[in-house]
Amino acid sequence: MSHSIEQPNSFTWQRAVIKVGSALIAPDGQGCRTEHLLALAQFINASRRQGKEVVLVSSGAVAAGRNAMPIDGKPTLAQKQAMAAVGQTRMMANWARLFDFPTAQILLTHGDIRDRDRYLNIKSTLRELLAHQIIPIVNENDSVATEELKFGDNDNLGALVALVAEADTLMICTDVDGLYDADPRKNPGAQLLTSVSDVSRDIMALAGGSGSTVGTGGMLTKLQAAKKASANGIQTLIVNGHKTSSYAALGQGQVPGTLFHPALSRSKAKKQWLRHSLKAKGKLQIDSGARQALVTRGASLLPVGILSVEGHFAAGDALEIWHDSELLAIGLSLFDADDLTSIKGAQSQQVEALLGYASHDVAIHRDDLVLL
Ligand SMILES: Nc1ncnc2c1ncn2[C@@H]1O[C@H](COP(=O)(O)OP(=O)(O)O)[C@@H](O)[C@H]1O
Ligand SMILES: N[C@@H](CCC(=O)OP(=O)(O)O)C(=O)O
């Protein structure tokens, strides 16, 4: 088996997606409480003071809206969607009370992340919010996403958000200490696994369903999320959000639950993705100043350094970046071929006038660019 029962490992992180399950928001299965969120909010505050960045993925809309719509028996899908609509605002108000900096709501469906234009917009929005020290709080758009409410879960959403947000860490806060070798609610002798290096079939087979009335996926969706994150160079932690000691340990760089190691480094994962999963749709020639900025400063590519644009491509497509006869880098363009041709060589402040609309001031953001 590829797992081990060891002493807690230490770990470091810089940008985390923290996923908070319904059980922590609504411990009684309905309404919204702060009981289990205070210690987490303090941890987030302290982490931000150290310059770390956090995106929250918060469940709990359905549970938070449940007592506004008393019904007999199991709610129908439409009733759950209505509960989510009521509960989402309550849940956001609950979070806002815990932070002394602004919070922002982002509601997503899986379809939004699959659509290239929407994906780019989500990415840019997250980037801007983080740059302005605002904490994005993401949830599924339950009221519009039929199949998401039926099959969707915020653990897998958390992994996708970690990818879009370029996070190095996914922390899943739940009501259990981590991954056990059997569901601890049913097996009192179950052992906690502190470190998992490969989310193999053996590991997947350990997962049972949700133990609470409000949780959606149980341990299985957490393992799916960890697998996805790991394949993209992101580490995942499952921690018990019911225990304040979890956050104290995290604050000291210790792992209080289960740590899933990334399968490869983030830069390698990104390089593989850009190199092998995406076919370049165009070519840019850049000048020596831009080459210098990319290579020595890891800077974004500005329109001013672009000498020529070749190919038919849309915003979001991969482009090769050349300097003379040297293939330097691959990156995702923020503009389509026509717009990039119009703004090549221009100063960033001229972009709006040239295109006729306000847009990005870089052509390829440094996070979307790998040097070869
Ligand atoms: N192997 C396992 N190890 C730990 N917990 C497990 C395991 N299998 C199933 N579970 C259950 O998963 C639950 C957590 O998932 P869930 O109820 O969906 O929480 P959340 O609302 O935080 O997503 C635990 O309370 C536990 O009963
Ligand atoms: N989007 C739903 C929660 C879905 C979900 O995955 O819940 P959970 O298993 O508690 O993380 C809501 O806000 O109620």
Keyword list:
Glu/AcGlu_kinase; five-stranded mixed sheet; alpha/beta; Archaeosine Trna-guanine Transglycosylase, Chain: A, domain 4; kinase; Glutamate 5-kinase; nucleotide-binding; Carbamate kinase; 38% helix; binds adenosine-5'-diphosphate; disordered N terminus; 372 residues; globular; Glu_5kinase/COase_Synthase; binds the ligand N[C@@H](CCC(=O)OP(=O)(O)O)C(=O)O
Write the layout of secondary structure elements.
Layout: E1 3-4, E2 15-20, H1 22-25, H2 38-49, E3 53-58, H3 61-66, H4 77-98, E4 103-108, H5 110-114, H6 116-131, E5 135-140, H7 146-151, H8 154-164, E6 169-174, E7 195-196, H9 201-204, H10 218-231, E8 235-240, H11 244-251, E9 258-260, H12 266-277, E10 282-286, H13 288-297, E11 306-310, E12 318-323, E13 326-332, H14 337-343, H15 351-355, E14 369-371
Parallel strand pairs: 2-3, 2-6, 3-5, 4-5, 6-8, 7-9, 10-12
Antiparallel strand pairs: 1-7, 8-9, 10-11, 12-13, 13-14
Helix pairs in contact: 2-11, 8-10
The chain binds adenosine-5'-diphosphate (ADP) and ligand VHF.
The ligand N[C@@H](CCC(=O)OP(=O)(O)O)C(=O)O binds next to helix 3 and strand 5.
Structural class: alpha/beta
Total count of strands: 14
**Strand-residue proportion:** 15-25%
Rg from Cα: 22 Å
Element pattern in H and E: EEHHEHHEHHEHHEEHHEHEHEHEEEHHE
Family: Belongs to the glutamate 5-kinase family.
Binding site for ATP: 19, 174-175, 216-222
Binding site for substrate: 59, 142, 154
Function: Catalyzes the transfer of a phosphate group to glutamate to form L-glutamate 5-phosphate.
